[in-house]
């Protein structure tokens, strides 16, 4: 291979960025500050309408911030239009130009970047090689499958060796099996070339699987930012806890805080949890269904409950349990133990697992 | 900017009549007789041009400055705005007889000089100021700081303002002027509410009704009839399993490429005093031949025939556009086919019905040829305007007032349509695939529809056979022997000692028409598509007003455009009457809405992310427009080209006011022959025009080529799982529906 696709990765920084569309009063993105480090894959995750796509489009230069500053590398690009930014983007619909062949599509951006004819051809070839579509150069986009089109779109963006590569829900048009495959490919290329990638999705599993860091957005602001594990194990608030994975959320009372540990009263149960920044007073607890233990009725350290529903789903059992805290959703891998709806059980929370979140 | 300086320094400031398009001035006393502005200033002849030169030199100060520098933007805006302002001031401030306004005379003293029409130099300087202004605005960050987009918006607004709104305003102004050149509201009102316009004589038993009522009645009836017929045809093609839909479509194209008054001619040949039907009826049934067809009945038949295809083209899009799953849903909810049609399909077609009616209404209002040929004593507004401005009565104010009335009617209809449609959504086609099939019509209704369509088709064929046959007949109604005389007289070609010689009487107007139609068609398509691009793809302040303005211009009848152009461009600063340019301009702005509609329709089918991805790949918005949008718009380009060409060839209502001896057009030539009762030549000429248009349309289709995006067909084995960002309109079908000459 004569030419290789390199990476000119750079960081992206948002400083107090607000975006208000047209005459609307409600900001689509509200005073966001954010640093995306060089060579990292960062996911913007959130429900639809949370402002994640707007954020992405502001990095691309397709929308302009109403307030605040955006920096790519060390350069202030806040007012720079898309054409003049060194950023490329893979669209949800791929946006392949239907009147050009695959090769022409990949060469398109190179033509405006001052490469010679030969460099353009070589780079395009290298790009197609990277996504394994070298033999498809003469086809039209409509003659490719969805997954192949997706890869052409990635190649087209990659060959420009952009400072930042953006993905706008790139997998939403693929079927479930292909989705897993393609996202692994994207991750592989990103790590191989050390690209800075900003990735938008509303699929939490996808986000957990591909990201170095995840930025969870809700209602135009950042709900929490962190590594996938941090977000899953230590959600900062009810929204994050519920949005990433499933969670039971209970009201509780922090009775005392001592040495970073909090004594927590949850109905009849007493728990000892990491306090974080929580003070004495009312708070909330988030517990993953898998972290909730279903025991025999009257066992020590449990609260009484009654099984409302038991569902066998092959790999595990799902329970809906009526307790004094309200309905609790739990999951148990022990499919052999017989349970029946209506049965009385004891519900326990282990020491590790439940986390205190802000009320 | 450089262009502006060149315009100032090199090109003649003032237009030279007749040779605007040639370079004869280079040899002809340049640079002293036809001097550029710089010379004029240096010679001390036109001192008021000096500030323009200064202003143009201003941006030189910005040499090597960064674009993001606020000084850059500020200075450009200031220069551009001042330049344009001063430019207009000097343009309008100095009239034919020196200063136009008294206070200027007070300020600068009396002026010995007069203003002349603008020339190339002026054009370039004005353009330069405009683009300085827009570049400045872009640098300030307007519309994302995009120079191309801001420049285009500025350009479109300027030309639309200059060539649509300014003439209309001038016309309104001149409506207030009396024959003696005084302003008088009283005369205006008395003319506006005159008996001749609004009289209700025919209702109360008098001889005739007011002209305005005539026009209104005719337009409403024609609008309703064409809409119904259009719907019928659309239903036949889409909902009956009718096998010859293609044929029917081809047939409906014929009236579109026919100059509208030709149908009027054919009607005369059939039903006129010496028409074959009349004569036949007289011979067989002993019915006394009368002139019944002249007037309302004849006009109604002619206009209905001429404008039904337009309604058909509107309706077919809408009828096909109703999502089959809506109808299937209705059927699964136990509605029978008739109930489905009445309760679901028909209401969903409401926008189409409204559009078709509006088009029929406007076309009928604006139609000039048919009333002239067939009108008899039934006067309508458009002919009335013509006679007010042409001939002995030369009364500009009267024409302007009539034009205003006409304009009010069409704008009223336009407004009524908007109100009727309201803000309800009639969109039923989503991006998702729709696998349903349109249900067929109930049998009784189908037969009824077949009958109407069949009758209409036969009648149309009869008309065309008549035209074709009539062009070979010696003297219709008297001597039916065949002859080539008419063709020879109009189109004979001979050899002289100077070589080839176009001897026929029609050649001059024929070539002028071809030339002007060929010049204006690409310009119309270009400006229309550019406007469509701005409307669909860009967001900017005042976009709603911009959209309304461009769409409004299509509710302005050609007659009104014609009159207003005569009034507005007869005097400096833009002095164009009698030139070919005014014809080109009138075609461009008369037909621009066609280009806009074609562009908007197909551009909204192209996914916006295509543009955005091109932008993020480093292409500028101009490159995006050229490399991504335009190639995907080929069907729209063809449609716009074909329509503007055809309309330029067949138009009569606007150009009848604008033609001159040197620039005579086919249509006005033909109308002239008809007025002289030379039906043979008129018909032969029309037949030639129809043939030429068919040929040119075919050539254009070839030249633009087709768009290759490798769309798969249904039986392709791999047809699962493909997707494309472009939903193709049926490119075989001429896209939007705005045709007919009027």
UniProtKB/TrEMBL annotation, chain B:
This protein's membrane topology, according to the annotation, is: Multi-pass membrane protein
- Name the Pfam families for this protein: BPD_transp_1
Write down the SUPFAM superfamilies for this protein, in alphabetical order: MetI-like
Record has Cell membrane as a keyword: yes
Region: Disordered, residue numbers = 711-742
Question: Which keywords does this chain's UniProt record carry?
Answer: Cell membrane, Membrane, Transmembrane, Transmembrane helix, Transport
What GO terms fall under cellular component here?
plasma membrane
Q: Which residues form the ABC transmembrane type-1 domain?
A: 212-415, 510-700
Instruction: Fetch the Gene3D superfamilies from UniProt.
Output: MetI-like
Q: Where in the cell is it found?
A: Cell membrane
The GO annotation for biological process reads: transmembrane transport
TM annotation in the entry: 48-64, 71-96, 116-139, 148-169, 216-238, 250-273, 293-319, 340-362, 397-416, 448-472, 516-536, 548-568, 580-600, 636-659, 679-704
Give the family from UniProt.
Answer: Belongs to the binding-protein-dependent transport system permease family.
PANTHER family per UniProt: FERRIC TRANSPORT SYSTEM PERMEASE PROTEIN FBPB 1-RELATED, MOLYBDENUM TRANSPORT SYSTEM PERMEASE PROTEIN MODB
Specify the protein name.
Iron ABC transporter permease
Lineage summary: Bacteria, Pseudomonadati, Pseudomonadota, Alphaproteobacteria, Hyphomicrobiales
């Amino acid at each position: 291979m004569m030419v290789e696709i390199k990476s000119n990765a750079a960081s992206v920084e948002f400083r107090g960025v607000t975006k208000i569309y047209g005459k609307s009063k409600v900001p689509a993105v509200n005073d966001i500050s954010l640093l995306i480090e060089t060579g990292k894959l960062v996911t913007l995750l959130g429900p639809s309408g949370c402002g994640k796509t707007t954020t992405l489009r502001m990095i691309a230069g397709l929308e302009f911030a109403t307030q605040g500053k955006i920096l790519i590398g060390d350069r202030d690009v806040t007012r720079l239009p898309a054409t003049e930014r060194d950023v490329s983007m893979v669209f949800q619909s791929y946006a392949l130009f239907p009147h050009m062949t695959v090769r022409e599509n990949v060469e398109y951006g190179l033509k405006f970047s001052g490469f010679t004819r030969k460099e353009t051809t070589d780079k395009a070839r290298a790009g197609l090689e990277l996504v394994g579509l070298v033999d498809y150069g003469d086809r039209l986009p409509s003659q490719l499958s969805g997954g192949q089109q997706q890869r052409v779109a990635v190649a087209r963006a990659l060959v420009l060796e952009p400072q930042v590569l953006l993905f706008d829900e790139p997998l939403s048009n693929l079927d479930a099996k292909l989705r897993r495959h393609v996202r692994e490919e994207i991750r592989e290329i990103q790590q191989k070339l050390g690209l800075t990638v900003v990735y938008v999705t509303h699929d939490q599993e996808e986000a957990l699987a591909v990201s170095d860091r995840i930025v969870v957005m809700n209602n135009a602001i950042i709900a929490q930012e962190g590594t996938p594990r941090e977000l899953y194990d230590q959600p900062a608030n009810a929204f994050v806890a519920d949005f990433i994975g499933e969670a039971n959320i209970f009201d509780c009372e922090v009775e005392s805080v001592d040495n970073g540990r909090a004594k927590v009263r949850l109905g009849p149960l007493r728990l000892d949890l990491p306090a974080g920044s929580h003070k004495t007073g009312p708070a909330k607890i988030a517990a993953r269904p898998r972290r909730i233990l279903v025991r025999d009725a009257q066992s020590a350290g449990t609260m009484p409950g009654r099984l409302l529903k038991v569902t066998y789903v092959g790999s595990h059992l799902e329970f809906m349990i009526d307790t004094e805290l309200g309905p609790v959703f739990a999951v148990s891998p022990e499919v052999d133990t017989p349970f029946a709806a209506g049965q009385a059980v004891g519900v326990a929370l282990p020491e590790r697992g439940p986390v205190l979140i802000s009320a | 900017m450089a262009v502006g300086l060149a315009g100032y320094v090199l090109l003649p400031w003032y237009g030279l009549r007749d040779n605007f398009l040639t370079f004869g001035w280079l040899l002809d006393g340049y640079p002293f007789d036809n001097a550029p502005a710089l010379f004029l200033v240096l010679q001390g002849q036109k001192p008021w041009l000096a500030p323009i030169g200064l202003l143009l030199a201003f941006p030189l100060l910005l040499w090597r400055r960064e674009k993001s520098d606020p000084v850059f933007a500020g200075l450009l805006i200031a220069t551009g705005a001042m330049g344009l302002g001063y430019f207009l001031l000097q343009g309008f401030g100095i009239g034919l007889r020196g200063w136009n306004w008294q206070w200027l005379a007070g300020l600068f003293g009396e002026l010995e000089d007069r203003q002349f029409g603008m020339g190339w130099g002026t054009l370039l300087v004005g353009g330069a100021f405009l683009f300085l202004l827009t570049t400045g605005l872009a640098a300030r960050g307007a519309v994302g700081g995009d120079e191309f987009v801001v420049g285009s918006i500025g350009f479109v607004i300027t030309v639309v303002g200059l060539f649509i709104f300014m003439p209309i305003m001038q016309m309104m102004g001149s409506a207030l002027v009396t024959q003696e050149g005084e302003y008088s509201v009283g005369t205006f009102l008395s003319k506006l509410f005159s008996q001749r316009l609004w009289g209700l004589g025919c209702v109360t038993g008098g001889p005739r009704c007011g002209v305005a009522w005539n026009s209104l009645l005719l337009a409403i009836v024609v609008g309703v009839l064409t809409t119904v017929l259009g719907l019928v045809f659309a239903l036949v093609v889409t909902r009956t399993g009718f096998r010859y839909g293609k044929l029917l479509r081809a047939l409906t194209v014929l009236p579109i490429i026919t100059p509208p008054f030709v149908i009027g001619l054919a009607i005369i040949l059939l039903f006129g005093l010496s028409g074959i039907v009349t004569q036949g009826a007289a011979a067989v049934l002993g019915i006394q031949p009368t002139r019944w067809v002249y007037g309302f009945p004849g006009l109604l038949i002619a206009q209905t025939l001429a404008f039904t295809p337009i309604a058909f083209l509107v309706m077919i899009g809408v009828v096909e556009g109703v999502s089959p799953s809506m109808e299937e849903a209705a059927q699964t909810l136990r509605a029978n086919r008739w109930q489905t049609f009445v309760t679901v399909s028909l209401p969903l077609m409401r926008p189409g019905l409204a559009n078709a009616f509006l088009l029929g209404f406007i076309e009928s209002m604006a139609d000039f040829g048919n009333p002239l040929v067939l009108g008899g004593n039934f006067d309508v507004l458009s002919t009335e305007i013509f006679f007010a401005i042409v001939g002995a009565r030369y009364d500009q104010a009267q024409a302007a007032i009539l034009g205003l009335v006409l304009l009010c009617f069409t704008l009223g209809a336009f407004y009524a349509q908007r109100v009727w449609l309201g803000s309800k959504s009639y969109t039923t086609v989503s991006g998702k695939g729709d696998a349903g099939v349109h249900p067929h019509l109930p049998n009784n209704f189908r037969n009824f529809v077949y009958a109407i369509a069949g009758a209409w088709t036969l009648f149309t064929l009869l008309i065309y056979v008549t035209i074709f046959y009539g062009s070979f007949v010696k003297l219709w109604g008297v001597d039916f022997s065949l002859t080539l005389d008419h063709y020879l007289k109009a189109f004979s070609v001979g050899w002289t000692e100077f070589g080839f010689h176009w001897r026929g009487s029609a050649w001059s107007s024929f070539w002028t028409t071809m030339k002007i139609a060929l010049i204006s068609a690409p310009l119309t398509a270009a400006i229309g598509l550019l406007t469509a691009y701005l409307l669909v793809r860009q967001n900017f302040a005042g976009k709603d007003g911009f959209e309304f303005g461009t769409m409004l211009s299509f509710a302005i009848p050609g007659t009104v455009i014609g009159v207003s152009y005569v009034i507005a461009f007869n005097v400096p600063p833009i002095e164009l009457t009698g030139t070919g340019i005014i014809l080109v301009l009138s075609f461009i702005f008369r037909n621009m809405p066609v280009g806009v509609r074609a562009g908007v329709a197909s551009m909204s089918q192209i996914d916006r992310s295509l543009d955005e991805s091109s932008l993020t790949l480093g292409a500028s918005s101009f490159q995006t427009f050229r490399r991504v949008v335009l190639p995907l718009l080929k069907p729209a380009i063809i449609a716009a080209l074909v329509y503007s060409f055809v309309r330029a060839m067949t138009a009569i209502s606007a150009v009848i006011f604008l033609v001159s001896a040197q620039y005579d057009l086919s249509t006005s030539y033909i109308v002239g022959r008809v007025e002289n009762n030379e039906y043979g030549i008129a018909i032969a000429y029309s037949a030639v025009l129809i043939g030429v248009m068919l040929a040119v349309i075919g050539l254009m289709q070839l030249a633009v080529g087709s768009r290759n995006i490798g769309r798969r067909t249904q039986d392709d084995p791999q047809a699962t799982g493909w997707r494309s960002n472009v939903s193709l309109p049926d490119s075989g079908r001429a896209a939007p529906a705005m045709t007919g000459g009027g």
